[in-house]
Amino acid sequence: MRRVLFLVAMTVPLSAQMTEISGDRLRAHVKFLSSDLLEGRGVGARGGELASDYIATQFALIGAKPFGDAGTYFQAVSLVGVEPQPSTSLSMVSNDGSATPFKYLDEFVGVTLQQKPDVTFDAPAVFVGHGITAPEYQWDDYAGVDVKGKVVVLFTNEPPSDDPKFFTGKALTYYGRWTYKYEEAARRGAIAAIIIHTTPTASYGWDVVRASWAREDQEVRLAEGEHDLAFAGWVTTEAGAKIAGLLGKSVDELLKMADTRGFKAIDLPVRFRGAAPAKIRDILTRNVVARIEGSDPQLKSEAVVFNAHWDHLGLGDPVNGDPIYHGAVDNATGCAMLMEIARAWAALPEKPRRSAIFLAATSEEAGLLGSRFFGEHPPIPAGKLALAINYDGFQPWGRTSDVVVNGSERTTIFPMVQEAAKRFNMTIAPDPRPEAGLYYRSDHFSFARVGIPAFSIEEGRKLLGKPEGTGEKLYADYNDHRYHQPADRYADDWDFSGMEEYCRFGMLIAVNVANSPQLPTWRAGDEFLPMRERAGVK
Predict the structure, then answer these.
(1) Burial of 322 (0-12, 13-18, 19+ CB in 10 A)
(2) Is the N or the C terminus of the chain less surrounded, counting Cβ atoms within 10 Å?
């Protein structure tokens, strides 16, 4: 009862400021950030510089203080752009010297992670199943095998399960993400890692892989002496069948082997030979960081964080004559919401006890790089960051009766999230695609991986005043025709009322966390709890 009374008390002084959150201001921000002038907000490009300058200026106008490097609004992030070239090659070489080449883009894609212009490799290969080492699930695909200097071949995803105690059941863990596969292979000393693509294990088709991997890859600069893969790549299911055939198996049979407890890595009777030429460029980009100080003399050294990424894909291959990938939904909307929440927070007559940090992160589209850099180099220790709330990609379809907050249930603030949803007459919708591992694919993950409780607020699908299923149809239409396409552009008929509500919802949660006596943490048994405890939060 005491907790509920606390929540009631905190909502009263908020009401005036929360109703001041304005769809008209959201509209103006989205319209500018997705305009032709900003050329798709590319990282390391003119449009990206304009976008980050604009957001910093908005923070300054509302009185939020700079919280970046050397008293500025900017946190510098040094990246390397690695653009694979059409001459990239990959082939299997048998013991008799005969080679089976794969066709670039049609049968394989890949890039060097060594950040060098000319990288080649020629090494024996090992099939390592899913490439997972997870002691908490008594699973180790690398047990008994040394892959140093070798090529590992594997599947993405993880062993299927309905048991929540085994790889969390149907919900994908980070072990299933392709990013983990390459990270673990590099930790093991492999020279290259090749994923056999299937649509079920990846949760998307080859066309998505091809489009994503045929363009420049942006990476955090390697430290001197740091090892990474000479080649990180994918092959199609059809090309994978040629690899499986070496063991007298089909791709499905090979996957079934990988899914079976007790799997042991298998040497393949071939070498993989490849060349990964790349165009290399240095990229200096930046996060935009502002702070509004808390009211408590002690607790103001701690903070809640609001985050949205400002980058999109910039200029690219024209579609219907348009080369600008505007990124209006993804993520001019989230940036607009970030700025409007900051404005409302700055207007509070009595500030919450803890401070608030507002982060517009760079390079999300390249793999959460800006938020990851912030998480690893926070302006205050991670153990003093109470909560991170991420806003990424909101549809302009108006208000809904539900909200998605995947991952909040893993934290000790979930009762506050539930209470806030109740106050806004919204139900908490379940993850619509738990098998896709969406929690590990947005900026909040960069906070979680260093122990900070974090989740994204996402729009629901149950549109008020619209027939059942309308939201699902609109969402599917966006994914099919506008997501990561030039057609993701602003229109004057957009309805911002839903975004207004999600701003208020997130602000209520954050204010309550900023005023709570104790720092939040993860629930017992959660994979991120050990990192939180190492940061000094018990």
Answers:
(1) middle
(2) N
* Tokens 């319209």, residue located: 31
Low-confidence ranges of the chain (pLDDT < 70): 1-19
Q: Where are the domains of the chain?
A: 2-80+282-534, 86-276
The one-letter code for the residue type at 55 is: I
CATH classification number, 2-80+282-534, choose in 2.40.40.20, 3.30.200.20, 3.40.50.720, 3.40.630.10: 3.40.630.10
Does the pTM surpass 0.90? The reply is no
Q: Are 283 and 218 a contacting pair, CB within 8 Å?
A: yes
Q: Which fold has domain 86-276?
A: Glucose Oxidase; domain 1 (3.50.30)
Could you tell me which residues come within 8 angstroms of residue 158 by beta carbon, excluding any fewer than 6 positions away? 130, 132, 167, 172, 173, 175, 176
Whole-number Cα distances in Å, 474 to 102, 124, 431, 433:
38, 48, 17, 17
Whose CA is closest to 27, among 500, 481, 526, 366? 500
Angle CA(496)–CA(498)–CA(500) in degrees, nearest 5?
70
Sort 100 into a burial class: Cβ within 10 Å, 0-12 / 13-18 / 19+: middle
H-type alpha helices, 249-407? 251-259, 333-346, 369-376
* 3-state SS track over 220-284: ECCCCCCCCCCEEEEECHHHHHHHHHCCCCCHHHHHHHHHCCCCCCEEEEEEEEEECCEEEEEEE
DSSP state of 63: T
Q: Exposed, middle or buried, 5 (CB in 10 Å: 0-12/13-18/19+)?
A: exposed
Alpha carbons 477 and 376: distance in angstroms, whole number: 37
What is the Cα–Cα distance from 449 to 455, expressed in whole angstroms? 12
Q: How far apart are CA 89 and CA 356, in angstroms?
A: 49
Buried-state track 468-492, b at ≥16 Cβ within 10 A, e below 16: eeebeebbeebeeebebbbebbbee
In the block, which residue shows the tokens 């990846």? Answer: 202
Q: In whole angstroms, what is the distance from residue 440 CA to residue 345 CA? A: 28
Residue 18: predicted pLDDT: 64
Q: Give the pLDDT confidence score for residue 72 in this predicted structure.
A: 98
pLDDT digits over 417-460, tens only? 999 999 999 999 988 777 777 888 899 999 999 999 999 999 99
